[in-house]
Amino acid sequence: MKDKYRRFSTARIIEHLVQIATFSVLVATGLSQKFYSFDISVWFILKLGGIDTVRIIHRAAGLLFAFAAIVHISAGVVGIIIRKWQPSIIITKNDFTDAVHNIKYYLGIENFPAASGKYNYTQKFEYWGILTGGLLMMGTGAVLWQPVFFTRFMTGELVPLAKVLHSEEALVVLLIIAGWHIYNAIFSPEVFPLNVSIFTGYIPRERMVREHLLELARLEGRTPEELREQMQKDAIQEREAESEEVRRRD
Amino acid sequence: MRGMRANLFAPALFFVLILLPHAAGSEQFLSSGEIQRCLGCHAKPGLSITFQNNETQAASVDPGKFKGSVHGSLACSACHADFAEGKHPARTFKSKTQYRIKSALVCRRCHTDEQIKKSAVHAELLAEEQQGKALVCTNCHGSHAIARISGKGAPASEEQYCMRCHERRTTLRFKNGERRALKVDLLLLKTSVHGKLDCSDCHFGFSSDEHPQRNFRTARDFTLASSESCRRCHFDKYTKTLEGIHYALLSSGRMNAPVCIDCHGSHEIARAGRERTASAKRCQRCHSKEYDAYAKSVHGNALFNEHNQDVPVCADCHTAHTILDPFSMDYRERIPEMCSNCHAKKEIVGKYGLSTDVVKTYLSDFHGVTLGLYKKQRGENYKPGKPIAVCTDCHGRHNITSTVGPDATIVKKNLLKRCQTCHPDANEHFPDTWLSHYGPSLTRAPLVFIAGIIFKIFIPIMILGLVLQVLLHIWRYAINR
Questions:
Q1: B-chain residues within 8 Å CB-CB of A105?
Q2: Residue B154 to residue B144: CA distance in whole angstroms
Q3: Radius of gyration of chain A (CA)
Q4: Do B69 and B112 fall within a single domain?
Q5: Element (H, E) at B180
Q6: Which residues, 6 or more positions from B449, have their beta carbon under 8 angstroms from its beta carbon?
């Protein structure tokens, strides 16, 4: 029985690092343009050397982001179709029932959280939120960058539309990342101070039991119920060992 | 001829200067009888002479005024040499003018050309006399009531003193042959903003004691020098002009660039901003092309045809003193601010049915935001590379047309051309990327409007969902422990 499992390949780790870099640059240079009247935005823009420079940086980061996204999608499509990867990130009916199940669990109606595969429903929704949002940002960003070119093929009104979508979707993506992803990866009590899987590529078995039960069962060829029983037994044993320790010390 | 006469009168001068103090007392004693006798008739008011052309001239003398005059101690015959005890020749003159010219020659017997030439005013008059224009002393100095030039008996005010010459047509001549009339219209002066000032408040160096003779090359040099007076009081305005384009032109040698006097006038200066039409017309003198375009524009039309005082005149946009080069980047970047002086104020444009959103919509769009940041960058010594479209780039400069009514189509039709000046490849769809100062609505840009609404609903719901999810998660975790 392994005590840790490989969760992310080197390619995914590099992808994530690129995302951190481009996303941070895009947020900093984009938000300062969206909220251009704020003192901090003006300060930031002037520090970078002016609005023209900020726009160049934003577009360069956008290009890199778009390139990484296209590589990621292509790799995913090729991997699933040709290399027969597990399509574990695809949203299924179970994800919706899991969501309902988890809310029941939080409210005390269910005893266990929903057992999930390699990715749980929050991770899947987050992934697709970022991916679709990212695609929308790429498209609308291109229109805003080259309005003269795009109005050759479409009506002028689509440019202000692109502006609204780009600007508002940016907020949505930022909220998903800042509000949910950062919480889940850093501040959630289960992983605090940092979920390092995406940097090391490995996840400890004990977290697999708690968070990705179905995936662990698949990897170890056991049923989820067996694993859960085992986990409870381990927990009881651990608690007894702890109290033994306390008695001995007294 | 004149030289000879001057020579002849030199002994007379000697006589007056040296012997008069002694002679005066005895002559007065001797002549009091003569004066009495002359005044016997000439003190009567209404006495007059009639000339051949039927003009008349009073021949009565006010004894009091004569006694108080600078010549009060002279006997009548000292000036009226042809007349004496029992000698009253009958003379005929063609006209009053001829009489006055003849009579005034008497003065020059004592007051020689050499003597009077010392004053600039007289020098000028003597020069004119040489060209054939008669010099009539009494025109300025009067006859029997001649006052002392300074001291006792001088005019009550400085103004009265100056006006004795300057209410007549006096002329200043320049080295290049140009002339400038120095006549002052007292009525205009009195009703001007400077009506309460003394002449020497502006014409420093001049007074009832001093009248320096100055030599100017050209009439323009005189105007430029005269304008220097203004800054003694209006120093703030003067320093403002130092930043302006007119001063820059002037210092680059363009002497016709306007100075204070060219716009404000000199003796007839009106209160600033009172007459807006006049203000616009002042600029017309040099900028007639711009003025004509303005006069036909929606602003100019309202000013000239409806006497509308809300519309801007030249100085409202270009300012009165710190007039910037209108082609400078600095000026361009101020244009939205200038327009918003009226177009962002409901109390001004509201009554014409104009929206005050025009400035806001511009400033929050791509061009406005970029411009706003460019302005701030400028403070950090960073020069933006390209000009950004401002109000005038679409609406025109002096020829601004109405955006409502039949003229609206002109604005719309020209829009693509205006876009193409910066975006040469733009096609007919391109102007629609700008929502024409209107916020999106269901009728105008419905897609933009709906997208905005969706996000306005979706984002709060999403925030709420995320917060709930996180809170529930923490809560359950705490219970499990």
A1: 476
A2: 15
A3: 23
A4: yes
A5: strand B179-181
A6: B440, B441, B442
pLDDT at B63: 83
- Among A58, A121, A157, which would you mutate to test the B interface (most chain B Cβ atoms within 10 Å of its Cβ)? A157
Nearest Cα residue to B344 out of B361, B330, B331: B361
| Tens digit of each residue's pLDDT (9 = 90 or more) over A185-217 | 898 888 888 888 899 999 988 888 888 888 888
Q: How far apart are CA B10 and CA B16, in angstroms?
A: 10
CA dihedral angle for residue A96, residue A99, residue A105, residue A109, rounded to 10 degrees = -40
Q: Could you give all domains of chain A from N- to C-terminal order, each with its CATH number?
A: 4-249 (1.20.950.20)
Q: Please, what is the average pLDDT of chain A?
A: 89
Helix axes A10-34, A158-175, angle to 10 degrees: 120
C-alpha span between B32 and B39 (Å, rounded): 10
Report how far residue B333's alpha carbon sits from residue B386's, in angstroms, rounded to the nearest whole number.
12
Domain that holds residue B84: 1-153
**Facing B373 at nearest CB: one of A51, A106, A156:** A51
Same domain, B327 and B473: no
Terminal-residue alpha carbon distance, chain B: 133
Contact residues on chain A for B425, CB-CB shorter than 8 A? 148-149
Do B9 and B85 belong to one domain? yes
Residues with Cβ within 8 Å of residue B68, at least 6 apart in sequence: B145, B153
Mean residue pLDDT across chain B? 82
| Same-domain check for residues B111 and B164 | no
Give the tens place of pLDDT for each residue, B44-95. Answer: 888 888 888 888 888 888 888 888 888 888 888 888 888 877 788 888 888 8
Q: Per DSSP, what are the bridge partners of residue B87?
A: B84
Contact B434 A156 (CB under 8 A): yes
Q: Is the pLDDT of residue B381 over 80?
A: no
A172 touches chain B (CB under 8 A): yes
Is residue B316's pLDDT more than 70? yes
Claim to verify: residue B74 and residue B131 sit in the same structural domain? yes
CB contact under 8 A, A148 and B458: no
- What Cα–Cα distance (Å) separates residue B386 from each residue in A52, A73, B329, B383, B391? 10, 39, 9, 9, 16
Is B445 in Cβ contact with A151 (below 8 Å)?
no
- Structure tokens of A110? 């269910």
pTM of the model: 0.71
Identity of the residue numbered B434? W
Other CB atoms within a 10 A radius of the CB of residue A121 amount to 21
Query: Strand pairing of B48-50 and A202-204?
Result: unpaired
When scoring A128, A155, A168, A169 by the number of chain B Cβ atoms within 10 A, the one with the most, hence best to mutate, is: A168
Co-location of B103 and B190 in the same domain? no
d(CA B31, CA B302): 76
Question: Rounded CA gap, A36 and A68, in Å?
Answer: 28
Q: Tell whether B120 and B142 lie within a shared domain.
A: yes
> How far is A115 from A113, CA to CA, in rounded Å?
6
Q: Nearest Cα to B158, choosing from B192, B198, B126, B130?
A: B198
| Domains held by chain B: number | 4
Interface test with A, best of B473, B475, B480, B481 (most A CBs within 10 A): B473
- Regarding whether B456 and B389 lie in a shared domain, the answer is no
ipTM of model: 0.82
